[in-house]
Structure formats: structure tokens, C-alpha cells
Amino acid sequence: MEKVMCYIPKTLNEALEIRNKEDVIVLAGGSDLMVSHKRTIGLTPKFDKSVMIIRNLPEIRKIYMDGSECHIGAACTSREIAESPLVPWHVRQAASRMGAIGLRNSATIGGNIANASPKGDTPGPLYLLDARVKIASTDGVREELVSDFIIKFRTIDLKPNEMITEVILPLSEDDFDYVFWHKVGTRKANAISKVTLSQAVKFASDGTVCDYRASATATGSKTNRSRDVENIIIGKRIAPELIEEVIAAFDGIISPRAMPEFRRESCRRSIRRFLTEAEKRRIEGCRDKVIDTYDGYYVPCAPVCRLS
Ligand SMILES: Cc1cc2nc3c(=O)[nH]c(=O)nc-3n(C[C@H](O)[C@H](O)[C@H](O)COP(=O)(O)OP(=O)(O)OC[C@H]3O[C@@H](n4cnc5c(N)ncnc54)[C@H](O)[C@@H]3O)c2cc1C
User: Fold this and answer.
1) Which range marks the domain in which residue 277 is found?
2) Which residues' Cβ are closer than 6 Å to ligand 1?
3) Is 155 found in the same domain as 35?
4) Which among 27, 95, 233, 300 has the fewest CB atoms less than 10 Å away?
5) Last residue of a domain, one of 129, 148, 169
6) Residue 185's CATH number
7) Residue whose CA lies nearest to ligand 1 atom number 14
């Protein structure tokens, strides 16, 4: 059997040097890799290439603000993200509902993006908030929108010598009047998304919509968001016919394969519920930002679990 190495670099520079000279598998939390490389019961996972463990690199294990932008290190775990007050609300929601407690202590945001699963929970909010990934190699650093970086199912725009180092969020819930995030799953925890809808809306002083965003996971080969759909409502007052127009247009951009009608209907209900309630709260002058979604159709999600 060919010998494979396990590298545990102490600094980001060391990691980038290793990645530059050898085709290593980058392992962060390992929650996807240990499953994709598993063997039969009783045998440890098998890696056919050397592995580089990056989860404890200090440069990519921190959350901080730079001006108004929130920076999340690629090796930050779901638990760290869910518990950080610096992280925008939508992203905290997604991180807090991933898997179960054990998983949230190991799964990282870099791994969730690089895995490029359409059912991944964090890309929905990241698309919604125009998040960027920071990518580093020995050649330098570059940034790209998460929505461009994830090309399609299991395909990302990453060169063999590159690593994701940060996720940068230019927007947060403070930029909107009302926000919405909901995961439809089959259990309270350890539930892979059936559908996850993220939405946000901002009103102008005359009551018309000046910003509206909606993104959905598990409804196609990657997370779905469309500026054309969102623009239908911009500059207008929310009304039932307009909501139905948005719903029909959103229906046109999603292409769920399994359980298509369930997923489509979940999106329809989420959009209708959010926009109707947002308009109602605007008229009433209600400043309660978070619009919840339980109307009997949805499967409730797990509460945030604090472990300390
Ligand atoms: C039981 C179970 C339940 C789950 N539930 C959910 C769920 O509810 N929601 C959800 O979204 N996901 C879920 N997942 C999937 C998984 O936990 C997530 O995708 C997780 O975020 C992956 O992160 P990781 O650090 O463990 O990735 P790893 O397994 O370490 O890596 C995954 C991929 O990303 C690459 N990678 C990791 N970090 C970097 C980096 N910094 N730069 C470049 N490439 C990198 C790796 O090379 C690999 O290809 C679940 C998995 C399991 C096993």
C-alpha cells in the first residue's frame, strides 16, 4: 500500500507551503471527509492521498469585524459561529441548526462551502448577504462571491494549491427591516435540509420595497437566488397579487429533483408568509425583525444548543 502522510501545520503559511508542493487533502472538521472515505464497519476511513489537518490554524479560527464587515475564519465551527454575536443573524441560524451537537463542534464553514452540496445550510444565508470567500495560496490572496465560487454540485472554483481562509459578510440583519430563515427537516436535530429559505426585506419611507432578497437550498444543483425575481418587488408596495408574482417567478428558478412538489410548496408558503407578515408589521409600525414561520406545514427545527 502506498504511504500517505498526515500533516498538521502550525501556521497558515506553513499550510500553504505544504499545499503548494503536494496534492494533499485539506481536512478541517472531517465530518464530510470521514464519511466520503469510510470503509466497512470496524475499519478506519481510508485516504489515498496525504491529508493536511487545518482545523487548529489560529489565522483561520477567528471571527472579527473589519469596519462593518464580519470576517469568519474558514476553520470556525458551526458552534463558534452560532454563538458569536458578531455573526449576522441568518448565518447564526443556519449554523445553529446544522446536524446535532457533536457535528456542530467539528463541522466548519469552510468545509460546508467547499463541500458544495446543494443541501448545505450555510450557503443560503451567504448567498442572501452577498458573502465573499477569501482564498489564499503561496501566490497571494483573492476574493470571490460565494455564489460564484460554488459552481455546481460538488464543484468549486479552487485551484489545487489554494485554500479558503475566510468568509466575509458585508451585510447583516441591521441592513433590513424584517428577516426570515427557516429549515424544513424531518427531525429536530441531525436533519439534512429538505428546503431552507432565507429572506430579508427593507422598506423605503414611502412604504415601497427598496431591497428584497430570497435564497433557497436543496432546490437545485446549488443554492438558488435570482436578482431578476427579487427585482419584481423593488420600488413597489407589497400586495397579494405582487406576492403571487414573486412566488411564480421563484418557482421558475428552482429545479428540485426529489420531492419536487413538497419543496416547491415549502418555498411558496415561506415567501407568502414572509412578505405578507412583513407588510403587516410595516403598516402596524412593528419593529420586531424576525418573522417566524410555523403554520403547521413545517417541521420544527432544533433550538440553539449551548455546550459550555
Ligand atoms: C451526521 C451528519 C449530519 C450533517 N448535517 C448537516 C446539516 O444539517 N447541514 C449541513 O449543511 N451539513 C451537514 N452535514 C455535512 C457536513 O457536516 C458539513 O458540510 C460541514 O460543514 C463540513 O465541514 P468540515 O469542516 O467537517 O469539512 P471536511 O469534511 O473537513 O471537508 C469537506 C470538504 O471541504 C474541503 N475543505 C475544508 N476546509 C477547507 C478549506 N479551508 N479550504 C479548502 N477546502 C476545504 C475538504 O478538502 C473537503 O473536500 C452533516 C454531516 C454528517 C456526517
Assistant:
1) 176-284
2) 25-33, 35, 54, 74, 98-99, 103, 106-108, 110-112, 114-115, 120-121, 163-164, 190, 192
3) yes
4) 300
5) 169
6) 3.30.390.50
7) 99
Separation between Cα atoms, residue 170 and residue 261, nearest integer Å: 34
What is the edge-to-edge ordering of all strands in the sheet holding 178-184? 178-184, 195-203, 209-217, 224-225
Q: Smallest Cα–Cα separation from 90: which of 201, 1, 173?
A: 173
Specify whether 158 is located in the same domain as 206.
no
Cα 24 from Cα 51, distance rounded (Å): 5
The verdict on residue 297 lying in a domain is no
The torsion angle over the Cα atoms of residues 261, 263, 267 and 269, rounded to 10 degrees, is 60
For the chain, the first-to-last Cα distance in angstroms comes to 43
Asked if residues 19 and 137 have their Cβ atoms less than 8 Å apart, the reply is: yes
**Which of 139, 169, 199 is the C-terminal boundary of a domain?**
169
Total domains, the chain: 2
Ligand 1 centroid to Cα of residue 62, in Å, is 18
Q: In this structure, which residue's CA is closest to atom 34 in ligand 1?
A: 111
Q: What is the pLDDT of residues 246-288, one digit of tens each?
A: 999 999 999 998 889 999 999 999 999 999 999 999 999 999 9
The Cα–Cα gap between 209 and 203 comes to 4
pTM to 2 decimal places: 0.94
Q: Are residues 142 and 228 in the same domain?
A: no
Is 176:291 a contact under the CB 8 Å cutoff? no
Helix and strand numbers (H, E) in the chain are: 11, 14
